[in-house]
Structures are given as C-alpha cells and as structure tokens.
Amino acid sequence: MTGSLFEDNDRGPGKQVATTPLAERMRPRTLDEFVGQESLIGSGRPLRRAIEQDRLQSVILWGPPGTGKTTLARLIARVTRAHFISFSAVLSGIKEIRAVMTEAEEARRRLGRRTILFIDEIHRFNKAQQDAFLPRVEAGDIVLIGATTENPSFEVNSALLSRSKVYVLKALGPDEIVVILRNALSDSERGLGALGLQADDDALMGIARFANGDARIALNMLELAAATAATSKRVDAPLIAELAQHRALLYDKSGEEHYNLISALHKSMRNSDPDASVYWLARMLEAGEDPLYVARRLVRFASEDIGNADPQALTVAVAAKDAVHFIGMPEGNTALAQAAIYLATAPKSNAVYRAYLDAAAAASEEIAEPVPLHLRNAPTRLMKDLEYGKGYRYAHDDPAGVTAMECLPDAHKGRRFYEPVDRGFESTIRERLREWGRSRSGRAGTSPRGEEE
Questions:
Q1: Are 71 and 102 in contact (CB under 8 A)?
Q2: Could you state, in order of their start, the residue ranges of all structural domains in the chain?
Q3: Is residue 217 exposed (0-12), middle (13-18) or buried (19+ Cβ within 10 Å)?
Q4: Residue 182: its pLDDT value, please?
Q5: What is the per-residue pLDDT for 128?
Q6: Spacing of C-alpha 340 from chain mean position
Q7: Of 208, 146, 213, 209, whose CA–CA distance to 182 is shortest?
Q8: CATH ID of 174-243, from 3.40.50.720, 1.10.8.60, 3.40.50.300, 3.90.180.10
C-alpha cells in the first residue's frame, strides 16, 4: 500500500499527464538516476545498501528543499516489501496518526509484516503528535522515515531521534544541477526532449546559480524558459537573466539558517573581517530578514565585542538603527552596511561584557552586601544620626578628581570587575585607571584595584 503522496510516481511510462510539473515528472525512478548525495547513496554506501537490500531502519532525512528527501522515500516505496504508508505533517493530525499506528500493529500481528511510514515535513508535528509514533517504533511495528528541512536536534523529539539514524542531505552543487537540467532537456518521455530545445552552457549554469542548490527550483525555471522560448527553441543566458527576477536564497526567518547567518555575521565582525561581515549582512537582508532585527544585533555587538575600545561604535550602531527606522528599506541597507563595516574594523574588547557578567554573578549568587554608609544619602535627621553619608569624600574637591574612598562593600573590597584591554581607547582607560590607582595608593597606603606597583 502506498499513500497518495506517491500516486503520480506509480503511473506507468507515458501515463504522466502534460500538466504535471517538470520537476515532478523528472523524479528519479531508480537510485542510478539519482543525482547528488554521493556520500549517502553512492555505490556501496550504507544507506544505499540498506535501501537495495530492504533492511532500512528508522531514519531522519535532513536537508534543504530540493535535495532529494521525498525522492528517496519514493525509491524506498518502490523496492520495499514492507507495508509502505506515507503522509504529510501539513495535512495530517493525531486522528490520522492513531489510525496508521493501529494499521501498522495489525499488519505486524496478523501478517508478520513491518510497516515503513514516511512523514514529510515531520518538524511540523508537535510533541504530542510525535510521541504517538514512539510506542510502535519501540515495538518494531514501524520503521519511521522522517523528512525535514529543520535541524532535528530542535524539531524532533529526543526519544524518536535516539531511535533513528540522521542522514544529512546537502544542497546540490551547480554542476549537479546542470546534469539534472540536461537530463530533462534530453528526456523525450518525461522531460522536454520532444521540444527540440537548444540550451547554452551559460544559460544552464545561470539556472543552477539561481536555484541555489534546489533541483525543484531549477527544473521549474527550465520549464518556464522552455515555454518562453517555444518559438525560438533557444534557451540562452539573456533569457535566463530576464526570467530570474530574484535569486532563490535559502532562508527561513524562524529556522536554523536564520541563526546560522546571524552567527556568521557576528563572528566575522568579531574577527575584524569587513568583507565577510558585509557579505553575511547582504545574505540576510536580500533574503528578507527584518532589518531592525539586524540593527539590534549590531547594537548588541557594539557593546559586547567593542565596548570602550571604541565608544563611538555604539553611537554608529544606534544611528544605523535610527536610519533604517527613518528611511526604511531598501535604502536603509547601506546604513546597516556602514555600521557593520565600522564595527568590523573597530578595535575589539569584551571587557565591558565580562565586567557585567562577573558583576551579575556576584550580585545574584553571593550575599547581597549592604551599601556602605558613606555612599548613602542622608535627607533626614534620622539618617544623619545613623551616620548615613558619614565619611563621604567629594571627588571634585580633590586635585586629581579621585579620592581613596572605597566604593565597593567590604566583601568585595579591591575586587576587579572591569579589566580594560590594551587596544583602542581602552588602552587610555587602562592607563588612566593605573594613574588613579597610584594616586589612591599614595594617599591611603594601600593599592586600590589591586594594582601591583
């Protein structure tokens, strides 16, 4: 038994209707026709052997769209002797899941036959729905094949994940996409061979770049080009450039790639690489990322990774945020680019970040020391009688602008939270603190801030 997901694939040669999209018609019918993923289904590879020998165990197929996840499931459906059921997580609910589980249990009990269950977009099932599969997987009634574009570490229940082998499918390379396109152009039975089209190498490579590793997008573009070139019978680079209004960028603002790209931007700026920084920025913005989200990340970076090594960095980042908010997109993209390049080329210091982390840990994990009396205000007679403010020294009355007065509670006396680095403006701050330390030490007979003189 095979679910409706694979009905088109089971039609005999020549039975596929002309209205079926080219990408659907050109799905590989055998593993030998499959292009790409050599590390997984190349000759002699474990996954291929398991499919050909019908010994497949539960697997999760994880990869970008158009890399062959559903095609692999269809090929498994062709070769397996097991009871094969498929459905989409988009269209199915807990009622359908329970019915399938009952069917699988019955097939195992009465016929001694296992069930292979293919779930397309398994990440769309919630925890309760995924939990419904677990007893039958553990009992051996079903072999689960889940397909997902999202990181299974976050989207698949740990119990299911621990009982499955995860196979990572990679985006197809341009040369692999071109092979798929040429197969479609030459195939007279399922492809475009009967049209007698001529396609330039540059045109096919242009489609491959446009597709960004997705075979489905590439075949859809080729089909559109074929319809446009019905009279001339020629698919050339100018035609593809005209059709490609916007390159397909792999991006999901709520998915893993969102976090991968912002991580790449942050780490490129931290490593003082302006070229990589502006590239990752452009990747996010051109794919439709919220520009204010990017601006918030730049503001955070300015304090976390630059801090007082260049105090102007925070001003530049906030100004970029205001510019984007004021003029919108796409004009705001250059303001963000200016800020990203400035931040990448600024001197770096995480001293402010580390100072806050250490201070926060002391504030939340250690005894909350009372504020020293000399630092407290005394607006009332009672407070003065209790010696609030007694011993306070007004820094402006000192020629050096600092006093030997201790401002930390006794438990933290002499403790350092802020350790400026010897880069950028923080080198000036570092020397300033040393001078103040010597000044305080000379008057108090001790070495505030723990300076070794």
A1: no
A2: 4-168, 174-243, 256-345, 369-450
A3: buried
A4: 95
A5: 79
A6: 19
A7: 208
A8: 1.10.8.60
pLDDT, tens digit, 9 for 90 and up, residues 370-388: 888 888 888 888 888 888 8
Q: Could you tell me what percent of the chain has a pLDDT over 70?
A: 90
The residue behind tokens 């989207």 is 155
**Averaged over 342-354, what is the pLDDT?**
94
Backbone angles phi, psi at 277, to 5 degrees: -60, -45
Q: Which of 111-115, 215-219, 232-236, 315-319 has the highest mean pLDDT?
A: 315-319
CB 448 within 8 A of CB 406: yes
In this structure, what are the phi and psi dihedrals at residue 168, rounded to the nearest 5 degrees? -100, 115
Closest CA to 336 of 249, 269, 254: 269
CA–CA gap between residue 31 and residue 418 (Å, rounded) = 61
Pairing mode of beta strands 165-168, 83-88: unpaired
How far is 72 from 16, CA to CA, in rounded Å?
20
Looking at the chain, the whole-number percentage of residues with pLDDT higher than 90 is 36
Whose tokens are 């009871």? That residue is 83
**3 conformational bin, left if phi > 0, alpha if psi -120 to 50, beta if neither:** beta
Domain formed by 256-345, architecture: Up-down Bundle (1.20)
The fold adopted by the segment(s) 4-168 is: Rossmann fold (3.40.50)
State pLDDT tens for residues 313-339.
Answer: 999 999 999 999 898 888 899 999 999
433 falls in which pLDDT band (50, 70, 90)?
confident
For residues 450 and 431, give the distance between their C-alpha atoms in angstroms, rounded to a whole number: 14
Query: Do you know the residue count of the chain?
Result: 453
**C-alpha distances in Å from residue 397, one per residue of 392, 394, 401, 406, 438:** 12, 6, 7, 16, 18
Tally Cβ neighbours within 10 Å of residue 124: 16
* Contact criterion met (CB below 8 Å) for 244 and 205: no
Which pLDDT score is estimated for 19?
A: 73
Strands 59-62 and 142-148 turn out to be: parallel
How far apart CA 259 and CA 251 sit, in angstroms, is 10
Token pair of 95 as six digits: 């009622």
Contact 425, 393 (CB under 8 A): no
Which one is predicted more confidently, 58 or 452?
Answer: 58
Sequence-ordered list of residues with C-beta below 8 angstroms from that of 70, at least 6 positions apart, any chain: 5, 120, 147
pTM for the model stands at: 0.60
Phi/psi-derived region of residue 283, left when phi > 0, alpha when psi is between -120 and 50, beta in every other case: alpha
Judge contact between 181 and 222, C-beta under 8 A.
yes
